[in-house]
Amino acid sequence: MASIIDAFQESFNDHHALTKYFIFAIPVYYCVDLYSKNDSSFYGISAIVFILLFGFMLKCTSNVRNSKNYVLPSINIFSMFYAGIKGLIAIGPILAIFSWLAILVCDFLSKYFPDPNSMIVWKIIVWAVFASMMMTGYLCYARNFKISDAYNLKIIIDSCVNVFAGILFMIPQVLIVNAIIVSPVTYLIWLFFGIPHPIAVFFWSMCLIFNLSLMGHYLAQIDYEAIAGDEKDNEKII
Questions:
Q1: pTM metric for this prediction
Q2: What are the C-alpha distances in Å from 133 to residues 42, 68, 105, 128, 148?
Q3: For residue 227, pLDDT beyond 50
Q4: What is the dihedral of CA 9, 14, 18, 19, to 10 degrees?
Q5: CA 89, CA 91: separation in Å to the nearest integer?
Q6: Which of 40, 50, 158, 202 lies 20 to 30 angstroms, CA to CA, from 21?
Q7: How confident is the prediction for the chain on average, in pLDDT?
Q8: CA-closest candidate to residue 216, choices 86, 72, 84
Q9: Is the pLDDT of residue 215 over 80?
Q10: How far apart are CA 132 and CA 141, in angstroms?
Q11: What angle do CA 147, 137, 90 make, to 5 degrees?
Q12: Region of residue 73 (left: phi > 0; alpha: psi -120 to 50; beta: else)
C-alpha cells in the first residue's frame, strides 16, 4: 500500500534535498513577487516556472517508479525545462480530450437532471472519472517518458479506478503532512515578522517544491500498485 510516510522520509532525506528545495523555490518566490507588484511580465514568467515545476514533478515520479536510489532530480534547469515541455506535449492533448468529453457528458446529463443540486453531484462524479483517466495517462508517461505510453487506452481504462482510489487516499494525507509542517513554522514567522513577509513567502515556496516531490513520490507508488499488473500482462501479450 502506498505510504505517505515513505514519500515524506525519502523526499526529505534525499541527497542535498534542502538545497534543491531552496534553489527551485527561488523562481516561485520571484513569481509571487511579480504578482504582488502587478508586473505585466508575471504571466510569461509564471508559464516558464510552471513548465519547470511540471518537469520537476515528472522526474520525481519517474525516479521512484524506476526504483532509483534518489527521488529528486539533479539541479539542471535545462533538463527540467525540457522534461516539462515534452511532458506537456505528451499529456496536453489527452487532458484536452478528456476535459472536452467531461464537458459533453455534463451537458448531456443536464438535460435529464435539471435540479442544480443533483447536477452538482453528477458533475463531481463525471470529472472525477475523467480526471482519474488523465492521471493514469500521466503515470503511464512518467515511467519512461514515451509519448505513446500516455495513450495506452487499455491500461488507462483498466487502471483508472484504482488510480482514482489511490489519489483519493493521497489528498487527505498530504493535507495532514502540510498541517503538521507548514502551520507551526508559519505561526512562528507570524509571531516574529508578521504576515505577509518575504520570509514566509519563501518558506511557502519551498513547501510547494517539497509537496511536488512528495506527491510525485506517492503517485509513483500508486502507479506500481494500480498499473504494474496491467504492464506485466501487456508484456506477456506482446
A1: 0.87
A2: 32, 26, 15, 9, 15
A3: yes
A4: -170
A5: 6
A6: 40
A7: 88
A8: 72
A9: yes
A10: 14
A11: 30
A12: beta
Q: What is the CA radius of gyration of the chain?
A: 19
Query: Whole-angstrom Cα distance, residue 206 to residue 51?
Result: 17
Position 20 pLDDT exceeds 80: yes
Residue-wise pLDDT for 57-83, tens only, equals 999 999 999 989 899 998 888 889 999
Q: Which long-range contacts (CB under 8 A, 24 or more apart) does 181-188 make?
A: 181/207, 182/207
The pLDDT assigned to 224 comes to 86
One-letter identity of residue 88: L
Nearest-angstrom CA–CA distance, 219 and 123: 24
Q: Residue 150, exposed/middle/buried by CB under 10 A (0-12, 13-18, 19+)? A: buried
Cis peptide before 196 (omega within 30 of 0): yes
HSE (side-chain half, CA atoms, 13 Å) at 237: 7
CB 218, CB 4: distance < 8 Å: yes
Strand locations in 69-202 (E): none
Amino acid identity of residue 121, one-letter, is V
Residues 212 and 177: beta-carbon distance below 8 Å:
no
Q: Give the integer Cα–Cα distance in Å for 206 and 8.
A: 14
CA-wise closest residue to 208 among 183, 178, 187: 178
Task: Locate 209 and state its grid cell.
Answer: 517544491
